[in-house]
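Pair request: fold both.
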Amino acid sequence: MPDYAYTARDSAGQKVSGTLSAATEREVLGILSGRSLFPVEVKATKASAAPGANLRVRGQVMAIVYSQLAALLRGGVPMLKSLSVLREQTSNKNLKAILDEVYHRVEDGSTLGDAMARFPRAFNEMAVNMVRAGGEGGFLEDALDRVASFTEQQEDLKGRTISAMVYPLLLGTAGTIVVTVLVVFFVPKFAVMFERLRERGELPWATELLLWISESARSPVVVFLVVPSIIVLGFFLYLRFQTPEGRRTADYVRIKIPMAGPIFLSFAVARFCRVLGTLLHNGVPILKAIEIRREASGN
């Protein structure tokens, strides 16, 4: 989450300055209002990167962490002691570094949600906001359990989806390689055999097309001009799809693909509804919950 530097005045008219971490400027204004401060100026600043902020931890590992932390807290173990236990027992170096930094931030007075927000590649936005809501509403253990359960479900669905796609992708890749090798190297060796049929006009159109593709694929124009042009075009399209407008176009095309499009759309809607319901169930305000899911719906 970004940091916002603010300048405000209290009820006595005294000038107060500081920094807050929030998702939007409107959220900063709400926090200041809750503190009886009148905002004079609010500016976004570059958030200071926490040590290990770019470290990534697999979702399955994080699900175990959430579940274990909930069990420790429910058993009466203090927050700092719970984080220390998790930090000492993990064998994952990335997770150990992250938990160490979270421990020190909580020790310095930060909430667990704010400390987790410093590591977006380990704790996703949904988990951070559910933990914040649980901490404020007094149901942190239940929130952690729900985050653990949801993370396990997401990882299980992701694993099954990848497993289902491996075989078709493998067949498609192998088929493409085999056909390319046949067209480029083997079809030309049989061209002479079909020459007489071509002269008599008895060569089928499909064979004519195959011979033309083979000759074109071996042409210097294709090798030195067309192929590099396709690579450059693909690179520029990739850069284009990294922009919000490009991603929107790509997602629109994806849901319009015959047969596959409705599946992509159903996945996006199901993901949105499932997480939105979880966030609302854990006390996250509806506008904040919709904002979170808007960015993470996958489309």
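--- second member of the pair ---
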Amino acid sequence: MKGRTIFVASALGALVAAGCGSSGGGTAAGGGNKACKATIGIEAPITGPVAVLGQEQLHFAQLALSLDNKANKTKITLVQGDTQLDPKQATTATQQLTSNANVLAVVGPAGSQEVEAVGPLFARAGMAFISGSATNVTLTQGKYPTFFRVVSNDHVQGMNDANYIVNNLHPKAVMIVDDQEVYSTGLVATMTPILKKAGIKVDHESVSQKLTDFSSLVAKVTPATSVVILPWQVAANAQQFGRNLAQQHKKAVIFGTDGLFSPDAFKIPGSYVSAFGPDITAIPADASLVTAAKKYGSFGTFGPPIFAATHVIDEAISSVCKAGQTPSRANVLAAIKKTNEQTSILGQPISFDSHGDNAHGKFFLFKISSAGKYELVP
């Protein structure tokens, strides 16, 4: 994957050089030498319908924490909050985390609808939270002042995907189906005007995320509809949609957004899937990190951004300690705002604009081969 070299060893070496200060009260003479202790949280769909993604996110958070603690000589622990990609569950998890005075910042949650539910709670608690996969554009328009994300937003994804469809797939008609969640409807709102401006006929449908048989919807796919766009979050649903297409002998190509990036769950040959992160297994310079991550099993693109988000928080805590201060929600939040990483596991720098967006975010596109392999589209 050209242009996406990752220097993990260098980044960790820089952290070692940075050192870490005291976790006790007041300041530490000479930069401090006491243990830098802190607790952070993670909100992810650890169980439930997309547990495969939540488990991946949890494992990459644990991996980042392990490496950063070793490099920084810190003692940062992780508290888990299982959301099941459900705003109500996320709210409960957030209430538990924000009421725990030891928790200074949170990685996650995964979904845009969850961020909408918990954003006000984190804001009232003055606690930073960094998502590795919540991409709805409106999340960084000022409503949630302690929210950050290491990935790009859906305006970039929707624009890139729609333009690729227009310029490379050349459909006369498309079907675009939202799953009635904020993430999905936001992408539809971005993509539809671009498609229509190009003269493409757009059939906009809407289904519940809980639907598991799409036969009636597939019946609406006309012979002229050569592309079906699924901005969904449940990869197994897209797999079933593909099966229903085949059962009805429909030849339309599925074009999925980042929520469908799951090589184990969605593998319809010829389909496209956009992603907010690269496939790090294809980066030779990152071989040692890939080996370390594989001890948890297979993974896709949902884990590496969580590694990046966790690393940002770990680095913020380290910098607070280095300054001889006791880590708190306020000074960790302030340190996160100053993040300026020249490289990351995502193969790109990380720094945040005034709204909490990564100033260097980008999207990638993959096509599923006949063998079910996700191959990067240049």
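Observation on the second member. The chain has eleven helices and 14 strands.
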